[in-house]
Design a protein that fits this description.
- This protein is an all-alpha fold.
- It has one domain (about 40-305): Ribonucleotide Reductase, subunit A, CATH 1.10.620.
- It is built from 13 helices and no strands.
- Helix 5 crosses helix 9 (about 205-235).
């Protein structure tokens, strides 16, 4: 039996805690036939969702850095074992969305000024502080973990939303883009508890968790709106400046999440004292989509062929 097959069987028999990942799915997409406005006739909805491609490559890399920094301090063996698959999933998410940015550049939208500004913001607000006293460094790690856990709450909620919602399907949205969004959303639902459990293992402060959400929610909203304005302004078709009416209209059509969901209900649920991400979304729904996803199916077949085993084996 090959080393790959041994590793594959070990993952298959590992018991995975609810809300923790067990493997990476190395999906790939060919964007050559995807139009600039992949929601037909709706530049606003297209770019409202396209903001995710702007935010996620830098964001996912930052998540990985914070969780990797925390790993030596994790005591729970189940949580510790799930960090590896989490890092693998997030690194693939970052790569997949970066490929979309290359496609946007080929269509006339250069995202580099925006993504560089975002990376500089992460550097200012979320980088390690090696010159600080040890106690303050540990507090700063807990603080950043709390921020990542809060963002992961949003990604799980958005993941569940994009899997369940059919507004984009009814609008005739590009199937490949929908598959990317739903594959990523399903994996966010799958690993929704991991960073929260790392935070609980290291700190668990309820006050710090609430303060993190109070920082993350408006920051995420500000960067999202800034991203929509950037994409609309640099769209070569000159669709005009986005407004609140565009957002409300698209939300009523179930093409994008509504402001009430993003600004009010999602943060408030996270601030409940007994909140745990395992109750926030459905792992069954996520696994069902991952079984149906065309890109995930191709990844399973490729992994099965590489391992010399069945196409539906783990490791894809």
């Amino acid at each position: 039996m090959s080393t790959t097959q041994v590793a594959s069987e070990a993952r298959q028999h590992r018991t995975v805690r609810e809300g923790h990942p067990d493997r990476r799915r190395m999906v790939r997409f060919d964007w050559s036939d995807t139009p600039l406005h992949w929601v037909p006739g709706d530049p606003f909805s297209t770019h409202m969702v396209n903001v995710l491609h702007l935010l996620l490559p830098a964001g996912e890399r930052w998540f990985i850095g914070v969780v990797t920094e925390a790993k030596p301090f994790v005591k729970d063996p189940e949580v510790l074992e799930s960090i590896g698959p989490f890092v693998q999933q997030e690194s693939w998410h970052a790569w997949a969305h970066a490929m979309v940015l290359e496609h946007l550049a080929a269509q006339g939208i250069d995202s580099e000024p925006f993504t560089k500004a975002l990376e500089q913001w992460f550097e200012r607000t979320g980088s390690p502080k090696p010159g600080w006293p040890k106690a303050l460094q540990r507090w700063w790690l807990h603080r950043r973990l709390a921020d990542v856990a809060a963002i992961e709450h949003f990604t799980a909620v958005l993941g569940q939303w994009v899997i369940k919602n059919r507004g984009l399907d009814y609008a005739g949205a590009d199937p490949l883009m929908l598959d990317l969004l739903r594959w990523h959303g399903a994996e966010e639902v799958e690993h929704r508890s991991l960073v929260f459990d790392v935070y609980q293992d290291l700190s668990g402060s309820y006050l710090q968790r609430c303060l993190a959400m109070a920082f993350v929610a408006p920051s995420l909203l500000a960067w999202w709106l800034r991203g929509v304005r950037y994409l609309m302004a640099h769209d070569p078709t000159s669709p005009g400046r986005p407004g609140w009416r565009d957002w409300l209209r698209a939300a009523r059509q179930y093409r994008v999440p509504g402001p009430w969901m993003l600004v009010v209900t999602t943060p408030l649920r996270y601030m409940r004292p007994r909140h745990h991400p395992s109750t926030e979304a459905s792992s069954e729904l996520a696994q069902q989509y991952l079984a149906e996803s065309p890109a995930a199916q191709r990844a399973r077949e490729a992994a099965g062929s590489a391992a010399g085993g069945p196409a539906d084996g783990p490791g894809a």
